[in-house]
Amino acid sequence: MPKIDRVEEIRHDVIIIGGGGAGLRAAIAVAETNPDLSIGLVSKVYPMRSHTVVAEGGMAAVAKPNDAREFHIYDTISGSDWLADQDAVEYFVDEAPRELIQLEHWGCPWNREDSGQVAVRPFGGMQIERTWYAADKTGFHVLHTLFQTSLRFQQITRHDEWFATALLTADGRCQGCVAIELRTGEIRAIRANAVIMCTGGGGRIFPFTTNGAIKTGDGMALAYRAGVPLKDMEFVQYHPTGLPGTGILITEASRGEGGILLNNQGRRYLENYDLGSPLSLTDPKHPQNRTMELGPRDRLSQAFMHEQAAGHTFKGPYGDYVHLDVRHLGERHIDARIPFVRELAKNYAGIDPVKDLIPVRPVVHYMMGGIDTDLDGATALPGLYAAGECACVSINGANRLGSNSLTELVVFGARAGRHAATVAQKHSLSDTPEINHQLEESRSRISDLQNRPKGGERLADVRDALTTAMEAGAGIFRDETSLAACCDTLRDLRKQMSHVSLDDTSSVYNTELTTALELEGMIDIAEALAHSARHRTESRGSHQRTDYVTRDDDHFLKHSLAFRTDSDPRIEYADVAITHWPPGKRTYGAKPDQKENDGGNQ
Amino acid sequence: MKETTIQLDIYRYRPDWDAPGYQTYEVPYRDDWVVLDALNYVKEKIDGSLSYRWSCRMGVCGSCGMQVNGEPTLTCATFLTDLYPGPVKVEPLNNFPVERDLVVDLTSFLEKLDHVSPYIVRKEDDENDLTSEYSQTPAELERYKQFSMCINCMLCYAACPVVGRVDEFLGPAALALAQRYNLDSRDQGKNQRQDVMFQNEGIWECTFVGECSTVCPKHVDPAGAIQQAKLEGAVDYYKRLLTPWVDRS
User: Fold this and answer.
1) Is A239 among the residues known to form the active site?
2) CATH code of the domain covering residue A306
3) Domain boundaries, chain B
């Protein structure tokens, strides 16, 4: 049984929930903004375990003389199918180089040119090569650089392996959270004048995902339950190249370095999908930016589905697949630029990319949607901020470009940190009975879960039903029938969840309990996703409706906002910020001589 | 046909419950499963009370290190085919206090990591100049790159005979990370780090046994880092101790 002794609440000026890239960057930003503030970093895992660690390919920022801010802005906005907020994109692009240099100053081992300057590589949907990289372990290096740098700041107190169960609100402001200390099972209030949510995405609501076990969307659910809307949840990124079975990511950098995709006829099938024409592998211009294998992820994953329907994919025990071919790059180049691809393919697929073709298929990778925030990371609940994948500011719109998300972590993590620091010092904590009441509510919710009679539903069965429903109903292609069925299943699962019983009654490190709490949140965000998708009767970016196949700017150049209610989510809409780039046609595969026209201020 | 299975003997310990012991589970044997898949099968289908850490299941988050048949290993990278026909013994990592079942307490490592200042230290006041990067050639990067690959999985601590005997020993990963920053051309904090490294109990007991490097899943070679640090640093350190008036920065 969890102890419910009345233990003292913990107090900080600012707390950050989540210790990945965004959370660590936010914590450091708070410390730098006001060194006198006490900062609490609350994370359900040790920060270096956070999922930022698996990001591979790199981090986009304009750095070289052949690049310009307008190019990065245009790539991001067109990549988003015009759903990104353009003021956010402009800020993002302008701030990106500084933030990446900051990481460099903090020790990130970026790959370098012979001159000693940072090297860049091409990436999907980017017209100029601007992706900074640390081999193909960029996220790992960025996370460890940030974590190790955070140790310099004595004012950051880490609460490692504390699982947040609810947000605390009083006097209309967010004033902290309730959390379980895993090693003791104690449930305590952690109070603060500002809370920054940096808990990442929730790819685990799908069965086949690159996301690690911890990516359960906890922070999205916490904010959603506190009345904050989730924005654009229907936009889910399928990465085109995951290993069948495990869902392990094979980085887009493998295509940035020149890798190609082949169907079961040995053809570079992307040429049939309005992504331009292939160049010979010996052509020095290969790979071409914004063309073929360097098209955007939504389009590549959709192309796979069409190939599958045409019978042009291979059959495997873990679903159909196509081949990623990097053999022509040669062993030296592979080892220098994408060594992790080789390591993963050898360990988990039993093949060596130096001489073998890599089997790949689309895999759920990233959520474009998340907690609705403004440019400062502020949410509709005063005192609550969000940054990173759990947030939607939005720079990604209907489809995120590869290598923009790590940059987003630091650009908006830092900004949310600075803003939260400024706001926190203007407020003090309220000592109202409301806070105690909310703490007790969390405690009784947890003891209810633990005291249920044995022999009820098993957690894994509910989770499997959830992920199956999401893939069937809200996958790469959706329609009214599939989404309606998905929404129905989710409604049933909510009821079924109340019949789950746990085997584990221990208070110490009870991961079955945290899995149950995670799963409740996963059903919440899955509902927000499915209902938002059902309401959006158009196709845009990653949201492809087979019953509404075209983009409908007249009605849906809008952000979806899902609000939690006692029954189905309520869906509202908000305008997209358009500054200088009116909605246009997304074109990829332009001839090199047309490229200049592609990027300008239109 | 009867499904092929494999037996797991798993260490169980709940401080608020019963005495430690081993529990046996029979799980399906699949040739593409890693030990972590088998543990997940136990937790999901048989016994939800088994506790262990895991996340990325691709060998980079560093969560799932355990002793498998007595060897410290990442359970997400250890295939059942290599352990067939079993039984497979799964225990928490050696040399750490056990919190529960297969979960060990990492507090001591995090304190040790903190001691070695694992971050860039600059004397010049140029840290906030974000207009241009510090220059670093590929050759300069290569000097420390290998030691920057540590995922903090703690296999090296579980394998190290000195860690087992000397509590205060900073240990392989923390020392390798100290050396990683010492070798970084952008860093100017070598002196402060060396004070900590060479006053530390244990480092002189570390002989080139190299158990740490053998078990490292990322080929960091902490043993190499430690010997290199000792060779490079000892002379330098004693010079500073004996002639503190000479500025060697």
Assistant:
1) yes
2) 3.90.700.10
3) 5-104, 107-242
Final residue before a domain boundary, out of A306, A332, A362: A362
Question: Which site among B43, B56, B108 would you substitute to test the A interface, given the most A Cβ atoms closer than 10 Å to its Cβ?
Answer: B56
Active site residue A286: no
ipTM of the complex: 0.95
Using the beta-carbon criterion (under 8 Å), do B177 and A502 form an inter-chain contact?
no
Same domain, A224 and A373: yes
In tens, the pLDDT along B180-233 reads 999 999 999 998 998 899 888 778 888 777 999 999 999 999 999 999 988 887
Q: How many residues does chain B have?
A: 249
User: Does A165 share its domain with A278?
Assistant: no
Supply the DSSP symbol for A244.
T
Dihedral (CA of A6, A7, A13, A19) sign: negative
Residue type present at position A114: D
Statement to judge: residues A16 and A83 lie in one domain:
yes
Structural domain contains residue A593: no
Q: Is A207 on the interface with B (CB under 8 A)?
A: no
Q: For residues A454 and A32, which has the higher predicted lDDT (pLDDT)?
A: A32
Q: What is the CATH number of domain B107-242?
A: 1.10.1060.10
Domain boundary among A335, A362, A389: A362
Nearest-Cα distance to chain A for B204, in Å, is 26
Question: Residue A455's pLDDT is what?
Answer: 87
Task: Kindly state whether residues A354 and A373 are assigned to the same domain.
Answer: no
A506/B14 Cβ within 8 A:
yes
Among the partner-chain residues B55, B122, B152, the one whose CB lies closest to the CB of A213 is: B55
Q: Is the pTM higher than 0.90?
A: yes
In this structure, whether the domain defined by B5-104 belongs to CATH 3.10.20.30 is answered with yes
Angle at A148 between CA A146 and CA A154, to 5 degrees: 100
Task: Say how far apart CA A536 and CA A177 lie, in whole Å.
Answer: 33
Residue A344 CA to residue B189 CA, distance in Å, equals 35
- Per the structure, the count of domains in chain A is 2
CB contact under 8 A, B152 and A512: no
Contact A348 B51 (CB under 8 A): no
A573 CB-contact burial (10 Å; exposed 0-12 / middle 13-18 / buried 19+)? middle
Tokens of A228: 């904050």
Concatenate the DSSP letters of all residues of B26-50 into one string. EEE--TT-BHHHHHHHIIIII-TT-
